[in-house]
Amino acid sequence: MKSKDRNYFKILRAGINTTYQDLGRNNLYHIGIPFSGAMDKRNFQLLNSLLQNDYNSPVIEFAYQGPHLKYFGKDIFFCISGNVSFKIITKEGVIDGNSYQCYLLKNGEEVDIHSTNKSVYGYLSINGTFDVDYYWESCSINTQAQIGPNNGNKFSKDLEIEIIDINNSFNKRKLDYLGSTIENIRVIKGTNYDYFSESSQNKFFKESFKITKLSDRMGMRLEGPKIENIVDPNIKSEGLVKGVIQITSAGDPIIMLSDHGTIGGYPKIATVISADYDRLVQLTPGSNIKFKDVSLEDAETLYKLYQMETNNIISQIK
Amino acid sequence: MIKNILNLGDAALYCDFGSDVNQEINSNVIKYFYHIKKLNLKGITNLTPSYNKLIISYDLNIHSFLSLKKKIENIEIKENNKLEKNLIEIPVCCDNNFALDIKRVENKLKLKSEIILEKFFSKNYFCYMTGFVAGMPFLGDLEKDMRLKRLETPRVKVPKGSVGITEQFCNIYTFETPGGWNILGNTPQNIFDTSNQSNPNLVNPGDTIKFYRITLDQYNEIKR
Known about the structure:
With 318 residues, chain A is an alpha+beta fold. Chain A has two domains: 162 residues, no CATH class; 132 residues, Cyclophilin, CATH 2.40.100. In chain A, the strands form four sheets. Chain A has a seven-stranded antiparallel sheet, with no helix packed on it. A seven-stranded mixed β-barrel of chain A has the order 13-20-17-18-15-14-21. In chain A, strand 14 and strand 15 form a beta hairpin. The longest helix of chain A has 20 residues. The mean pLDDT of chain A is 95. In chain B, strand 6 and strand 7 form a beta hairpin. Chain B contains five helices and 13 strands. In chain B, the strands form three sheets. Chain B has a seven-stranded mixed sheet with strand order 5-13-6-7-10-9-12. Chain B has a four-stranded antiparallel sheet with strand order 1-2-4-3, covered by helices on one side. A two-stranded antiparallel sheet of chain B has the order 8-11. The chains are: A alpha+beta (318), B alpha+beta (224). The interface between A and B is large, with 41 and 48 residues.
């Protein structure tokens, strides 16, 4: 391929944990492969809608500090979703960018993603497709099992990201959206709820827990009041799903996130409801959270409302 | 055969087959797993069989708990449904560099290392489930006098290929991962093959495993 025909980003700085993600891979838990996929599905969906891409198009996910990218090729548009600070370095000067707004990018121009603000994950994509390989019908990178494009590894400096299928009829679009935060994480009681003392059950819902630095795409470790197990600190290993809150032998909660191990042997005190998952994963280490108990019926309704809200936001794209 | 179906969160069924761990209960779990997998029901996003539970994850846009529960309860599995079982032989080298915990196992079991390994290699093992990390098989059962607990402090990194034991089970670390099993050796054989997307697992639930012992030279030969 002649270099002048290529359209690509060169990574000048990779960021902390930068990967390709899409909606993830299904029906592989039984061999030990988790869903993976974009951590914050709403921001993933908003980004592909803004760029008029297919709903499951690959995007670049970053955490805390994003990548610094230099673009080579014909004119394209890019957009960033999430609560993100970034600069666009053009020949005319440096512009502060806004999330949920599409920008034109010319040959030799750069995007420098400084950080996510009061949140963890942000997303970048273009009016086209990243040229990636698919593994089990998904291009999501799972660094733990080394599955996905780039040999299953996160991005590193000097990597070149090829862009294909640029949509030439695309026009700039934007969305006025400030993001959505959450105070209480709503949960459904878990299958081992009665493994814990009554006073610990009360503490679990009344007191707050702090998110520790030991949090990543696999799980989120919390600290707070110790949760006392009165039956057995272990169960016979069994399947996990994302959002499950296990209590370790030390009495601390750990929440399973998108790249979690598929089987676990700690008792399950509760599971985060689907409607709150996107906002849960955006909480930064050091934040305090409280859990609120809801019924299964309420959780199902809350999920429908959350999806309606997402569709409503998408309908406001101009 | 399913005793009870509960919800695990708002997007998964928790099918309980009993509280014991034995091959009879586990075979029922595996039969249901393969049967439901074959049905290819729309909106099922994952099936996770384990010793005595089957977790069915679903798309909340397509199913609700009650409607899917009814569907699963109405599934009939014929008793004579035979499980497909493969016998798989796996080479293991127990050189000192690989048998990371042989001293600890000697002390805990009060057996000489040669006796421990002889006992370990003399049995066939049943695969109850695979998972935790991609392709890791959970195998059993070890003889009663071969059972011991996990390491008090798990290793931060267990080398890929390590073969370990804990309680009545043994397993193979398909990737370098943290872990607390007592490591007796290492296999040069690839247990999980990312490039074989239709069948990446060497070992699947229901299979029988026979470990056989190899020398360090043989190990290096296979690795090459």
